[in-house]
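Z., the sequence and structure:
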Amino acid sequence: MKIPPESSLITIPDEIYREACVYTTEEAVASCQVVGYPAMIKASWGGGGKGIRKVCLHKHYCSI
């Protein structure tokens, strides 16, 4: 989707977006260890309608 330059939408450059994403469970757990729990997770695609999940502990993260 192309966003017209005259629109008032603010976008995030693709490179910054990709750097902020985690792609594996291990990356997500490592990120949570830095930031801390609780954490909110959401699939960027293929979530099957699960939406956003709150994770309070490491063991809960691995079960989602």
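The longest helix spans residues 25-35. The chain is about 40% helix and 10% strand.

Let me know what you think.
H.
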